From TrEMBL, chain A:
Gene3D superfamilies: P-loop containing nucleotide triphosphate hydrolases. This is ABC transporter ATP-binding protein. PANTHER family: TAURINE IMPORT ATP-BINDING PROTEIN TAUB, TAURINE IMPORT ATP-BINDING PROTEIN-RELATED. GO terms for molecular function: ATP binding; ATP hydrolysis activity. The keyword Ribosomal protein does not apply. Pfam families: ABC_tran. Residues 4-234 form the ABC transporter domain. It comes from the Bacteria. Keywords: ATP-binding, Cell inner membrane, Cell membrane, Membrane, Nucleotide-binding, Translocase, Transport.
UniProtKB/TrEMBL annotation, chain B:
Residues 85-265 form the ABC transmembrane type-1 domain. GO terms for cellular component: plasma membrane. This is ABC transporter permease subunit. Probably part of an ABC transporter complex. Probably responsible for the translocation of the substrate across the membrane. Pfam families: BPD_transp_1 (PF00528). It is found in: Cell membrane. Belongs to the binding-protein-dependent transport system permease family. Keywords: Cell membrane, Membrane, Transmembrane, Transmembrane helix, Transport. Its main location: membrane. It comes from Paenirhodobacter populi. The keyword Repressor does not apply. InterPro entries: MetI-like (IPR000515), MetI-like_sf (IPR035906).
Length: 262, 279
C-alpha cells in the first residue's frame, strides 16, 4: 500500500518566483489498483510522480510505502519516464536488461528475459540496435519493457503511451492491463487523455494547475471489463463510459462551474 | 597558453555545436582540403623556382627533401631525424599518459564531490592560467635541466584540460539518467560505472584533444629552450646556423605529428563514443 498524505511541492523558479506545483494532495494506491492522474499540461502530474518515485523531496506532507516513509528511489518502484532515459551506448536489449544486471542476474539469463519482454512490446527485431536508431514511440516501449523487467511491485508511468499512434497505444494498453490483471501490481498512471484515464483507471484523480491540486476523484470499473473482454471496444460503447467522459470533460474545461455541482 | 585556457570551454562547446550544424553536409571537405594543400605546395614550388624570395627565407621543396634524407641518415644536432622524433614523441606519450592517469580520476572526483572541487580547483586554476614557459625555469631549478623537469612541464599541460573535461563530463550527466538507474535498483558503485563514467567519456575525449594540442605546443617551446634532443632542439640548432631547410623539415614533421593525433582522436571517438551527440 502506498499512501500520499498532504503532499505539497513548491519550486523556487530561476527568476526568484515560487511555483506551487503540488498543493495538499492526498490519496492511496492500494494493492491491485490503477490510480490515474489526469490533467492538462503543467498541472503537477510529473511532480507528483517524481515525489512518489523518490526523485524529489516534498516541501511538506509525506509518502508512505507500507507504512514507512519513502526516502529515495528504489527498485521496488519501477518508473516509465515521460522523457526518454535509455542509455545510448547500450543496445536496446541491454537497456531492457539493465535492472536485472544491477541485481546480479547472469548475463545469459537476463538477456533471455529481456528478449521475452521485447517480444511482448513488439520490438524483438530491434534487440541489437542502439536506442537512437529507434523512433520515439519505439523508445517509449523499450522504456516500458525495461521497467517491467525487474518485476517491481509498483509501476509509476508518466504518460507512457503519449508518443504512440492510436493503434500501438491500444496494444500497449492491452499489454498493461494484461500484466496488471495477471500480477495485481499497483499502478500509478499519468495521462492527459480522459478516455485513457477511464479505460485504465480503477481510480481517477482529476488535477488542476497552479496550484496543482486534485479537484475531483472518481472510481471506475471499466478496466475490469477491458481485462475480461480482452478488447477495448465493448468498454468504449458502454453508456456509463460516455456519461463519465462527458462529466470529466465539463469539469476540466469549466472547473469553477462544475466543482460545486460535483 | 593562457589564451588557450580561456578558449578551452568555448572551443569544446563550439566543436560540438558546429558538428551538430554541419553533420550530413561534410561529404566533400576531404577533396577540398587536399586541393588546398596541393595549391600551397604549388605556390611553394613556384616561389622558390622563380626566386621570388631568397633561399635563406624559403628553401625549395627539393632542398628540404634532400635535407630530410641527410638528416634521416646522417643526423643533425647530435641525432638522426628518428632520434629527435622519438625523443619528442616519447615525452608527449609519457606526459599524456600521466595526464590521463591522474587527470581523469581527479576530474571525476571534482565533478562528484563539492569539497574536492573547491580545494583542487584553486591550485589547478592558478597554474593553468600561467604560461608554461614562465614557470619552466622554476621547474629547472627544482628538478634540474634533465628529462624530469620537461616531463613535469608537459604533464601539467596535459593534466588540466583532461581534468576539467572529466569534471564537466560528470556535471553534464542528465539527472533523469541517474534517476532511471536508481529506480532500477542501482547502487552507488553501479551508478558510477554504468552511468556516470560512460556519460562523461565524450567530454573526456574532447579534453584529451585539447591536452594533445597544449602538450605539443609546450613541448616544442620547451625543447627550444632547454633540451639536447627532440624536434624543437633540432629546429633551434638549425636556426642558429640559418639552416632554413632543417627548420622547415622540423616544422613539417611536427605538422605531420599533429595531423596524426587528429586522425587518431577521430578514430578513438568513432570507436568509443559512436553515440556522441545522439539522443
Ligand atoms: N524544477 C522546476 N523548477 C521550477 N518549476 C518547475 C520545475 N519542475 C516543474 N515546475 C513547474 O511545476 C509545474 C508542474 O510541472 P509538471 O512537470 O509536474 O507538470 P505536468 O503535469 O507533468 O505537465 P505535462 O503534462 O506537460 O508533463 C509547472 O508549472 C512547471 O512549470
Ligand atoms: Mg509531465
Amino acid at each position: 500500500m502506498l499512501s500520499i498524505r498532504n503532499a505539497s511541492v513548491v519550486f523556487d523558479a530561476a527568476d526568484g518566483s515560487r511555483v506551487n506545483a503540488l498543493e495538499n494532495v492526498s490519496f492511496d494506491i492500494p494493492p491491485k489498483s490503477i490510480v490515474v492522474a489526469l490533467g492538462a499540461s503543467g498541472c503537477g502530474k510529473s511532480t507528483l510522480l517524481n515525489a512518489i518515485a523518490g526523485f524529489l523531496p516534498l516541501t511538506s506532507g509525506e509518502i508512505l510505502l507500507d507504512g514507512r516513509p519513502v526516502e529515495g528511489p528504489g527498485g521496488d518502484r519501477g518508473v516509465v519516464f515521460q522523457k526518454d532515459t535509455l542509455l545510448p551506448w547500450a543496445t536496446v536489449l541491454d537497456n531492457v536488461a539493465l535492472g536485472l544486471r544491477y541485481r546480479g542476474v547472469p548475463r545469459a539469463e537476463r538477456r533471455d528475459h529481456a528478449r521475452e519482454l521485447l517480444a511482448l512490446v513488439g520490438l524483438q527485431d530491434f534487440a541489437t540496435k542502439p536506442p537512437y536508431e529507434l523512433s520515439g514511440g519505439m523508445r517509449q516501449r523499450v522504456g516500458i519493457a525495461r521497467a517491467l523487467a525487474t518485476d517491481p511491485k509498483i509501476l509509476l508511468m508518466d504518460e507512457p503511451f503519449g508518443a504512440l499512434d492510436s493503434l500501438t497505444r491500444e496494444t500497449m494498453q492491452q499489454l498493461l492491463v494484461d500484466v496488471w490483471s495477471r500480477t495485481g501490481k499497483q499502478v500509478f498512471f499519468i495521462t492527459h487523455s480522459i478516455e485513457e484515464a477511464l479505460t485504465l483507471g480503477t481510480e481517477i484523480l482529476v488535477m488542476s494547475p497552479r496550484p496543482g491540486r486534485v479537484i475531483a476523484r472518481y472510481k471506475a470499473d471499466f478496466v475490469r471489463d477491458f481485462a475480461a473482454a480482452g478488447d477495448i471496444g465493448g468498454v468504449l460503447n458502454d453508456p456509463a463510459f460516455g456519461q463519465l467522459r462527458a462529466e470529466i470533460r465539463a469539469l476540466i474545461h469549466h472547473p469553477t462551474q462544475t466543482r460545486t455541482a460535483a | 597558453m593562457s589564451a588557450l585556457s580561456e578558449q578551452e570551454p568555448l572551443s569544446a562547446a563550439a566543436l560540438r555545436v558546429s558538428r551538430r550544424w554541419t553533420d550530413g553536409k561534410t561529404g566533400g571537405t576531404a577533396l577540398i582540403s587536399a586541393a588546398t594543400l596541393l595549391a600551397i605546395l604549388l605556390l611553394w614550388v613556384a616561389t622558390t623556382h622563380w626566386h621570388w624570395t631568397s633561399p635563406l627565407f624559403l628553401p625549395s621543396p627539393s632542398e628540404v627533401a634532400t635535407q630530410a634524407v641527410a638528416t634521416a641518415l646522417d643526423g643533425y644536432a647530435n641525432g638522426t631525424l628518428l632520434d629527435h622524433l622519438l625523443a619528442s614523441l616519447g615525452r608527449i606519450g609519457l606526459a599524456l599518459t600521466i595526464g590521463i592517469v591522474l587527470g581523469v580520476p581527479v576530474g571525476l572526483l571534482m565533478g562528484l564531490n563539492r569539497v574536492a572541487r573547491g580545494v583542487l580547483s584553486v591550485p589547478i586554476d592558478i597554474y593553468w592560467g600561467l604560461p608554461p614557459l614562465a614557470y619552466l625555469p622554476l621547474l629547472i631549478i627544482w628538478l634540474g635541466i634533465g628529462e624530469s623537469s620537461k616531463i613535469l612541464l608537459l604533464s601539467l599541460s596535459a593534466f588540466a584540460p583532461i581534468c576539467f573535461a572529466a569534471q564537466a563530463g560528470v556535471r553534464s550527466v542528465p539527472q533523469e539518467r541517474i534517476n532511471a538507474a536508481l529506480s532500477l535498483g542501482a547502487d552507488t558503485r553501479q551508478i558510477f560505472f554504468t552511468i556516470i563514467l560512460p556519460s562523461a567519456l565524450p567530454e573526456i575525449l574532447t579534453g584529451l584533444r585539447i591536452a594533445i594540442g597544449a602538450t605539443l605546443s609546450t613541448l616544442v617551446a620547451a625543447e627550444l629552450i632547454a633540451a639536447q634532443s627532440g624536434l624543437g632542439y633540432m629546429i633551434m640548432s638549425a636556426a642558429n646556423f640559418l639552416a632554413t631547410d632543417v627548420v622547415f623539415l622540423g616544422l613539417i614533421v611536427i605538422a605531420v605529428i599533429a595531423f596524426g593525433f587528429t586522425v587518431l582522436m577521430r578514430f578513438l571517438e568513432r570507436r568509443l563514443v559512436p553515440w556522441k551527440g545522439k539522443l
